[in-house]
Amino acid sequence: MSDKRQIFSDIVKQRRSVRGFKKEVVDRSIIESVFQNAQHAPSNCNTQPWQVVIASGAKCDELREKFTTGFLEGQFNLDFPYDGQYAGVYKDRQYDAANQLYSAQGIAREDKQRRNEVFMRNFVFFDAPHVAFFFLPEPFGLREAADLGMYAQSVMLSLVAHGLASCPQTALSMNADMLRDALGVPETDKVLFGLSFGYEDEDHPANKCRVGRAELKDVVRIVE
Ligand SMILES: Cc1cc2nc3c(=O)[nH]c(=O)nc-3n(C[C@H](O)[C@H](O)[C@H](O)COP(=O)(O)O)c2cc1C
Asked: Is the shortest distance between the CB of 152 and ligand 1 below 6 Å?
């Protein structure tokens, strides 16, 4: 295999959702280098329909507190609907991923309290020192949301190339009004998800989780 193929294959396979981070902060120059790479992501008509806010330090701590108390107080407002009604093979994959995550941490599926504790870790960014929020400006819709997804995957792969790890989180879009207010983001920018990132805590049990993938033949057809 050529060097480039090997390097890409290693990076794309190394990326996974990490749910336990060291507290060590990432140098600003490294963060800028990561996001500079992602600027090369493609988009419809090169519109580059993404606005990103990265929170660190005191702002990160403020958000941890606001997300946690907001959720416990029942604050729930999403810019984009999410009903999580998966069926068939999609439901099977969802169950499998959740089971892998719980069993890596020694949690039984029926142990609701500990499962809830695992969910609440979303709101403290799994202890990551940095969190990025991905906003889609109005009036963009589904098509441009796909652009934002490509941009975010570029960020995640770039993080791996820089020796860093991340976790994309829909959970961080569940209190959109609070978030905009805390970050000084205009009402017209709609949040799709957040991304906790930093250096992986390799000893955290959640990071033993490895979810599988469908076989190529089940998702890709080559026709002639
Ligand atoms: C847009 C998006 C939102 C996600 N939201 C969450 C989330 O809120 N909390 C979480 O722990 N994982 C979240 N995940 C991570 C997925 O569970 C994970 O990507 C999937 O199980 C595949 O595992 P892997 O990323 O380790 O390969 C999200 C992933 C994506 C792409």
From this structure: no
Looking at ligand 1, which atom is closest to the CA of residue 172? 8
Euclidean distance between CA atoms 129 and 201, whole angstroms: 12
Output the tens digit of pLDDT for each of the chain's 224 residues.
689 999 999 999 999 999 999 999 999 999 999 999 999 999 999 999 999 999 999 999 999 999 999 999 999 999 999 877 899 999 999 999 999 999 999 999 899 999 999 999 999 999 999 999 999 999 999 999 999 999 999 999 999 999 999 999 999 999 999 999 999 999 999 999 999 999 999 999 999 999 999 999 999 999 99
| Global model pTM greater than 0.90 | yes
Shortest CA distance to 35 belongs to which of 172, 140, 164, 146? 164
Q: Is the CB of 208 under 6 A from ligand 1?
A: no
Topology adopted by domain 3-213: NADH Oxidase (3.40.109)
